[in-house]
Fold:
Amino acid sequence: MALIFLLSPLRPAHTANPTVASGWVQLGKDVAQDGLVQANQNHDGPTEPSEAGGLECHALQRYPGRPELYDYFRIDPTLKAHLTNLVVIEVEYFDADAGGHFRLDYDSHDESNRSLGAYTQSKEKVYLKGTQRWRRARFLLDDARFEGRQNDGSDFRVTVVGGRFFLRSVKVFQE
Structure:
């Protein structure tokens, strides 16, 4: 089961307790990362440096033959060793175009679907409204497995149905 919390545009968000496991990636012309790595860039998860709303970010690129946009992430094994199956993933995105939505597809313990849990869809979706603002969304995952069973050994991906999508940062942590 996944829960999502939508946070207002760039208001200070509750941050993870520094004593618990956490990792992040910041996307732009240069990529900064700690415990979380952007993956699968040469297949169905390509992104490229861009700018939206005055900030550096990455624009997700459509892979030929795929109707959705993807951005994949791998969690460092050292960080995984400290995570439980209850984690929060926070996604900072630019709400550019109305009419689409995004979700997480993550490696879970739910083996009842065709992918045996490797691509479990978050129950909630974030609907894009075209506000032209940077926003954050949080997904609470209570059955995370994170054994690298997605493409390129990834643990989760941001999946977008719609037009343009700009991503600035992704964080994973325990509450």
